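protien #1 (seq + structre)
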Amino acid sequence: MEPRWLMLAVSILVSTCCAINYAYAVLSDTLKDDFKFSQTQVDLIGTCGNLGQYFGLFAGLTYDRFGPRICLVVAGSLIFIGFGMLSLLLGGVIPNANLASIAFFYMLASQAQPWLDNAVLVTNINNFPKHIGLVVGIGKAFNGLGASVFSLMYSGVFAPHIVHYLAFLAIAPTVIALGSAAVTYIVPNSQKNRPTGIWRFVYSYIVAGLLMVYVAS
């Protein structure tokens, strides 16, 4: 398999992980029911997550200067620290969890999204210069489906144990991000110009469509 196709396949997993924060309702319900946070407090934590999620300036600057691999390493570190600390705080391992600490670490975990998105999206655009629309569409399709995927994981595997779910989020996406760093790079121009089998893009969209049907059923 050509390296750029391997990177495209790996980027699907990374794009799915970009949507973890869109499944915030899973966490917000627990904060209200088990930790007696008010709706205003839950909204404040969600807002802090949005601030982290959509502030991508440093991720973009780092990509331009150092490339995708360092971005994926930073993303994995943010996910591991952010969700790892949340699992320890809400699990009582670290006592006296409060609004400020939960909001901060949720924002830290959310900040991983622009680092993940920049790393794979911009790299795929560079590696498939004649099919930019197709590779962007694939990434955003799985990005959009990611929230449903993680919500189903919680309800099907972890519910009602939110601490176990947060521990899973601290580990699995981190492994994906760091593993992706080993194979993600911009290929030489000679490889970019090779003939492209359009059927591979079609197959990716078929998989996305089947996944959409599954999560909607």
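ok now protien #2
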Amino acid sequence: MSMFAGLQFATLGPPPAVVPPSRLPDPECLLKFDVDKKKHEIFEAARERIKLKSQYTKSGRKPWTQITITLPIKPATTDEEDLAVVWAMMRESTRSKVKESGNGDLIWTMWGGGDHDYLKWLNIDHETTKPVNKFVHPVLYESGARKQTMLENKLKKARKNICLYEVQHLETQLEEYESAQASKAAATQSSGNDYHWSCYDECTVTFRKKQTRKVVNELQLIVKVRTSYLGCGDPKENNGYLGGGCSSRELDPESKNYKLMKSIEM
């Protein structure tokens, strides 16, 4: 390999993070919140909502979860000042070009895997943070909750449309399904394999150009996080790690499962 080829190879790597437009004013005098605390709020709020709402299946479903974050601002700010405040939150959050929709909304996209841009944006060190403090757990996996939600939504629609026969039929279906799930849960002995985890695949953050909350001195960011199933195992029994999964990276280095997985990966 020539010296030039070696130099060219050495310069390859991930593109630099996107930075704010130079025309924007300095946000320091505009901020009415602590950026690091707000990022921690986003991290915890997303985890809590994913625990409650996201449902995972053997088919590999990757659900989206949405939360809305408010940013306090000073009265009578200009559009440029609003953007400066938003960019103070989003600075170097992504390596992808920030997109602008047809109505002027700005959309930042980050990825959970690879360079872990989503965790880096929220000041979470992927390398040193244990899975118990990094990923989402416990989550709903093959719990039957998804089918129950679908039946409840159909029932709600039937009631709205005043379809009496359909309402009666769906009510019976729902009662029978809930009864069957309760009997199944009572007959099943709980174990660490019933404790499930999910990880981050993708995140989008949207700043809408038309801000309805600006009249009360607040801006809004819409944060959507896409997650996927990661593995299982009670962290109390596994030193803060998973008990089993598709990779050794999230297993306890002192565990038998870790050594077995490493031997397979080699």
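The longest strand covers residues 218-232.
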